[in-house]
């Protein structure tokens, strides 16, 4: 951390920021404690990726966003994410301001909470306190995580009470309209016993040259027999350095399924861990990546099995072009006692240019005998025989490559439950690989 | 179009510097069904792959023309758009691309931009062709060849052949691994195409398929060449007597390309 940042976003600043948002006292104290811890903590150490020269310090912490009067007034890049005629559950955060919020009454009547993190802190402080940086992510994991806690400046809280099944997706858009604004978004999703919810998130910015920082933490808690389906498309522009931490905790018979499109254009560290705590819990963690330019990225997807008969599967597909380089770590860990568990993973990297680099590291760590585990990993070019087959039907080489690449990234695209978000991701992929 | 002519002259083909075809001559015209037969390892499939432009096969000399145009100068996709279709023995599996999206792209590849097949018309044609080939409708939405059984892959190749309206079809061991019912369905699909605008080259080493698709011409390949040609009576004699009499007649000890 530079001296400048230290001076600018110090204890006094944080205390003032917290007060201005009318946060409960515990939150202010948590921030201050985290700031002081951050000074002695180490930076994260992503495997095989050096981050010494990355810029984690250039950003503006708080920028207001104008209210959104109607969805029609949104610029095309944001509007394209929304089905304006059918968006009953939608939160739009513009810079650091909660500027649009809708939740179908039928859910609020059943006690579902879907609101920005600051409103949640004011109105549901005690509930938040039970889960915020408790069971999923710890403040002191590394310096950036502590800094996230100290400087959290946006995000969303989703709470689904016992036995409530929300059968419409909840959609969030983090729109970093200002080129300098940092995103310290905190996403907290709590699904109580026997509940179900589908959440879909888009992060978007346009700062191709201006440096800034995104340091987001997502925590998903699925209580007994709860079912959380989480979809996200991260689409920060080249100027944004990204540290994204996503963590799930699944209790007995619970499921957390992830589908993540990692479409950032800047340097990115993504750490994604799911703890299968309860017996019979399960998780599917799917992610797709397109790397281009001189981008350096590091992706870790980890499912840790504690519960018996827990089932985890990881799928990571990456497309690398230009001079982009990425490390993909897939980790299936079965703890002692998690008998009859099943851990599988598949990591595949498609290289489109000579100068691109991709590293696929499948890792199985198993401390139990009676389990099933498997992994597949590959790094390679577009299969010439696949190209030949498609071209033998008259399809041009360019179009054949396009079909193969879209097919390769389809596992995440197809899983996103909102048509507009799906289409938008397809277009982002199109724009990046062409 | 009045009809097409695919002309193969003195074709020599190598794979990884090993010569496999050693001077093949063959002419296929619209309206004609040709069968190329021969034991394993005599170069039959290499001929099919070389015509289509498989990346592993290198044509070292000779020529292939379609209506006078130099096929060897064309990229694989240009060959297809010129009217050639190869039903492959081992079609690739392509994850994430649905069979129906692939079919539509293939059909549109042969049409002008702005003249793409209307979606409804496409769906209707596909449904009809799938019914005709007794294919499960859900195969349209499955990923291309992924998890298809051997028989499903073959039917799917014929589905493409039916829908793509090629001038010259080449079938590379379309009968291998098929049970008798599937074989009949595949033959039914191919026979449906028989008219004066369609020529076909059927590569097989079993007479069995030719019980259902009567060829006009039969060619026997050995040692990387066509060593004998005749009418459908030739395939019947091969069925009854095997290949030994040809070897004796031509004084061939080892019929494979290793000879």
UniProtKB/TrEMBL annotation, chain B:
SMART domains: AAA (SM00382). The keyword ATP-binding applies. Residues 6-248 form the ABC transporter domain. InterPro entries: AAA+_ATPase, ABC_transporter-like_ATP-bd, ABC_transporter-like_CS, FeS-cluster_ATPase_SufC, P-loop_NTPase. Belongs to the ABC transporter superfamily. Ycf16 family. Signal peptide: none annotated. It comes from the Bacteria. This is Fe-S cluster assembly ATPase SufC. Pfam families: ABC_tran (PF00005). One of its GO terms (molecular function) is ATP hydrolysis activity. The keyword ATP-binding applies. Keywords: ATP-binding, Nucleotide-binding.
